[in-house]
Amino acid sequence: MGPDSRNDDLDWLYRREPRDRPVTPEQTRMMSDEELSELRARTEQHDRDAGARQPRPEPSRREPVRPVAPPPPPDDPYTTPTRTRTRRRHPVRRFFAVLGVLLLAMLVWLVGVPVYAWTQGDDVEAFPTGERPDGQPGELYLLVGSDSREGLSEEERDRLGTGDAEGRRADTMMLLYVPSEGPPALISLPRDSYLEIPDNGSNKLNAAYAFGGPQLLTATVEQNTGLRVDHYVEIGFGGFVGVIDAVGGIEMCVEEPIKDKASRLDLEAGCQTMDGGTALGYVRMRKADPRGDLGRVERQREMLGALAQEVASPATVLNPVRYWNLNRAVAGALSTDPGTGLFDAGAMALAVARVSGGDGLTLTVPVGDPDYATSAGSSVLWDSEDAPEMFEAIARGDSAALAQFTE
């Protein structure tokens, strides 16, 4: 059997037409609706089966673009690699930071306490109206210690020997001159100075205060000196005692024993610390002093200088309790004219400290007769030549010329 016979025998199997028959194209047969529906159903079933076997990928989400760090520089064979360490504050820097905070807090304390305390003080109208002398170079303070018992209890009045007199009178008067250049000068005006009082005739200086208060006292001083008072500062008995006690007392040296019934004073000779009550009796004592009012003004200047030294001492600044008590005591004790502020009071305290430290002048207005008989009793008469010369030197601003009048 040849090859063609075998092929012919297989034609029936593969449904092929015999080779010798002409090939005609198969006619296209249209599928029925049932067949199309079946085919479509089988296709959809195939798609479902394929989706179950292989999950459909989710739509891709666009990741945010992140900066890429630059590649590290190539290693330098000539340098030694360093370790990355956590940066810590250096102990020295930490110390200075803490120190700076403490210094700032101290500065606020040193400034804030006096500012607050000064608001607790009293203002007093002390300058006269009308015509007044022209001003001199520098600043002129009128310092007045009155015998006001305000702030003292009955027991304290009895212990201090101040009496029960109502009102107040000038017990101490001083001029503090702070020139533009040159040393400051502290000048005592004896309370018994016999002077012309405006619209009140001649009388003792302290009578001016009794007649017309601070304004008439200032007018009397200006009229008899030819100087213009720039600042008025007054302190009473109670305030004086409080300030002395606030600094822990004042050390004073007594040359001879002192006993004075009027001031309730009983002191031994030698250096000793005086509390407020003892210090008040010491500066007020007059009858037991052979020099009378002139000896008393010297003790007053001495006490004021010692007090200024205590106020300006480092112990006052470094002790918060003492600093607070002192500022409260000083502000509550002083009465000033409205134009005198905290800066002026500080300048006054520094000037008095300079005087007590030897960098200034202490003197009393030149006296011609310490026991001048007048209708007001024994008085102090100013020297008719030296006193005007002293005041003229101040009017010129020449404090150095005052040295010739020191005692």
Question: Can you tell me about this structure?
Answer:
The protein is α+β, with helices and mostly antiparallel strands and 407 residues long. The protein has a domain at 114-251 and 275-285 and 292-405: Aminopeptidase (3-Layer(aba) Sandwich), CATH 3.40.630. It is 42% helix and 18% strand. It is built from twelve helices and 15 strands. The chain has helices at residues 3-14, 33-53, 91-118, 154-160, 205-225, 237-246, 276-284, 293-311, 314-318, 320-333, 342-356, 386-396; strands spanning 122-123, 139-146, 170-178, 185-188, 194-197, 201-204, 231-235, 250-254, 258-260, 265-267, 270-274, 334-336, 361-364, 367-374, 377-382. A seven-stranded mixed β-sheet has the order 1-12-7-2-3-4-13, with helices on both faces. Strands 5-6 form a two-stranded antiparallel sheet. A two-stranded antiparallel sheet has the order 8-11. The longest helix has 28 residues, at 91-118. The radius of gyration is 53 Å and the shape is elongated. The mean pLDDT is 80.
Output the helix-strand order. Answer: HHHEEHEEEEHEHEEEEHHHHEHEEEH
- Poorly predicted regions are none
Beta-strand residue percentage: 15-25%
The best one-word shape is elongated
CATH architecture of the domain at 114-251 and 275-285 and 292-405: 3-Layer(aba) Sandwich
Largest sheet: 7 strands, mixed
Beta strands, count: 15
Annotated CATH topology of the domain at 114-251 and 275-285 and 292-405: Aminopeptidase
Family: Belongs to the LytR/CpsA/Psr (LCP) family.
Protein name: LytR family transcriptional regulator
Domain Cell envelope-related transcriptional attenuator: 169-312
Biased composition (Pro residues): 67-76
